[in-house]
Structures are given as C-alpha cells and as structure tokens.
User: What shape does this take?
Amino acid sequence: MSQQVVTRFAPSPTGYLHIGSARAALFNWVFARKTGGKMLLRIEDTDRERSTEEAIEAIYDGLKWLGLEWDGEPILQFGRAARHAEIAHELLARGQAYKCYCTPEELAQMREEARAAGLPPRYNGYWRDRDPSEAPEGVAPVIRIKAPLSGEIVVDDHVQGKVVFKTENLDDFIILRSDGTPTYMLAVVVDDHDMNVTHIIRGDDHLTNAARQIVIYNAMGWNIPEMAHIPLIHGPDGAKLSKRHGALGVGAYRQMGYLPAAMRNYIARLGWSHGDEEIFSTEQMVEWFSLDGLNKGAARFDFVKLESVNGHYIREATPDYLYEVMVATAREVGREDDLAGLAAHKETVLAALPELQPRAKTVLELIDLAQFIYANRPIIIDEAAGKLLTGDARVTLREVHELLRGLNDWSVPAIDAAMRAFAEAKGLKLGKIAQPLRAAITGRTVSPGIFEVMVLIGKDDSLARLSDQITS
Assistant: This one.
C-alpha cells in the first residue's frame, strides 16, 4: 500500500496572507485533494518579535475565504521548541553535530578573513573537531550541524529538475542557539518529519534552504520529502511582485470585490497550466492538477486579467449568492448607505441582478450599479449624466413624463412601445429619449435597459425621479 500524500502550508505570521503565499497554499491544497491526501497547516511563529496573533487570524481567515480548508488542527511551531531541541541533542550524541563556543567578535573576524581571501563569508569549522575540554568557562555554546566536507547535495525537484549543490559551499550552520531555541532550518525539518509530510511545495526562494535541510534529513537518517519549488510571482513589468503591483493581503482582494472562486482560478494560472485553459472550475483544477504541470518560468500578476476572470465568475453566479456577497462586502468596507439600501430592497436587487451581472467585473461595481434601486430622492446626477440633461432634453422629458403617467400597463413591452411611438412622432431616434431618461432616473449613463429599470423601481418612483429633474 502506497503512503498517503501529506502536504503542508507553513506561513510565517509576520503580516497578511499575500498572493504568493495564497498560491503556495492553493497548490498544496489541490495536490492533496487530487491524490486523496491531506494538507496540514503549520504556523511558523518562531520569530517571536514579528509574529502576531492578528497575523495568525488573517492567515486563517484568508484561507477560509479562499475555500482552502486544511486538515486537522493548525500546528504552532513555537510550541514544539522542546522537540526541536531534543533532535539537536540527538544529532550531538550521534556525532552529527557539535557545540561551538565562538564569540560574535570571532565570527566577525572569520567573515572578514574569508572576504579578504576572496571566499564566501561564513563559519570556518573552528570547533568542529576540537576537544570539548577546550571549551571556555561560562560561555553558552550554539549547536552546529556537521555539513559534509565533500561531494554534492542533490535536490530532485518536480519544477526545477535536478539541482546540484557543492557541499564545499555549505557551512556548519547553527541548529540550536545559545539560549536553547531552535533555528528555522532545524524546526522545519523536524516538523515536516513528525507531520509525515511527503511533498513540499513552496517558493523557489527556499531552494538553497532545501540543500541545508537535506543535510539534517541525512544526518538523522530520515526520508526526504519530494519537493517542488515554484518560481516567485512578478509584476506586469517583470520585477519581483511588490505592493505597487498588487502584492496585497488576500483580505484586500475580498474588499475590492473579487470572488473566491475567481481568485482560485486566477492564482492557479500564476504558475500552473493545463493546455490553454484559462477558465476552469475548482473541480476541474483538482482533476487536471499535477506537479509536472507547474511552470518553471516566473508568472506575471495582471490586474486586468484578474478582473476579466472575476467578471466571468460574476456572470456565472446565482443572484442569491451575489446578493449575499454584496451585503457582506458593503458591511466589510463600511458602506452603510449601500448596506441599508440592499437590505431594504432585497427582492428588487435580486430581480435586477441578471441585468447587472454582465456589466460588472467586481462586486463593488455591482453595488455601484445597483444603487439606482435604492437611491434617495432627489438622486445625485453624475457629471456624465448631467451633460445629457440639456434644456432641450428636459423639455422632451416633460412630455415623456405626461405620456408615462397615462400608461396603465407598466411593463417593459408597454413602455418600449410608448417610447418608440413618441420618438417616431417627434422624428427622433429612440436613444435621444432613452439616454436622458436614464440620466434622470438613475443619475448615470450606464445601467441595465432603462425600461427594465423603470419596471424594477415601479411607476411611482420612476415618475417621481423624472419629476425631480424636469421641475428643477
């Protein structure tokens, strides 16, 4: 029986869950689902000064919003420090590690001498083979791993291929600090081993860490997980992704009105592909995913493409779902007037959504488009709409108001027929009536069909809004 696949997502809680971390979580999650395995969550909170409870909650919240539920309880790395130290001392007992008593001044001198000799500035192994009896009094030592002195460390990577590191370029790095706390390098290996992790999928900025971690795996005689190091995400200009490109927290994308399904789809395409498929469901992604499909080249983050993908998911969503997301978004971003309007006119908003959905790329745009339904009178006319309400247009709208007031059948076909007959009688194109009518009733130049709008908000409200503009 083959071993169950176990992946892990292991963020550091020193800030929000950014897009690169979200992508790593997605690939770990989808690979676990594809193989019938598990994705575990480990919070690497050993940096006590920078780790915060707020950041941990933001990670949980971001993963849940994206629909990337982990298996089991999250593991907090700091709480396992005693286990990490235990392994450091076991390595010491095996002769695979040693105590180093060098002072900071001695280490600085070593680095200077290495630089002067044209060598990389690193530890020179001074205490590696010394007799413990030479240890100075009253100095708390660090514990260093004994890195191999010759040969190669090979990382067989699903994305990068065979990556070879010369052991002469690895120093005897610290695994336990002088205060007894473990280093990141040791903690990661011990945790991955104890959590039975079979596959490590992470950014390629960890590739050199992989070589050091393999040294620890080998020293303990542990199985090395399979690895896939994915290229980092770049901005549209090819530079490393930064805040100016969109390296925001996942929560920020939620507040900007992106749907979780769209984010999953878009993020997956940042480093993985299945033929030329651009739009695919999460179920399809799970079905198609393979580590071999991960791209070796860096992906470029593109807001225009994200908006396009999000627009697709908005068009495909049910009105009931979108209404709930609109309410939640309005609440989160503090749009109290919209929140009140959406709540008071739920049925009208639901009825309008099929007309609004094709016109919006984000949920915020959807809220903006729906505002005509619950706008307070007299409604605010935006600048573009105001230009349509000329003196001549207002004269025409007065006649239109009289005509509409006399309509007994307040339906789209009836209003449409009446307006076409009126336009023909006046020798005008229908647009010359419909456009100022839209401006007067919605305050905008863009809306669903204006006759549909009038039916949605009702005869009384339509005539009242029109009256506000022709008498002002």
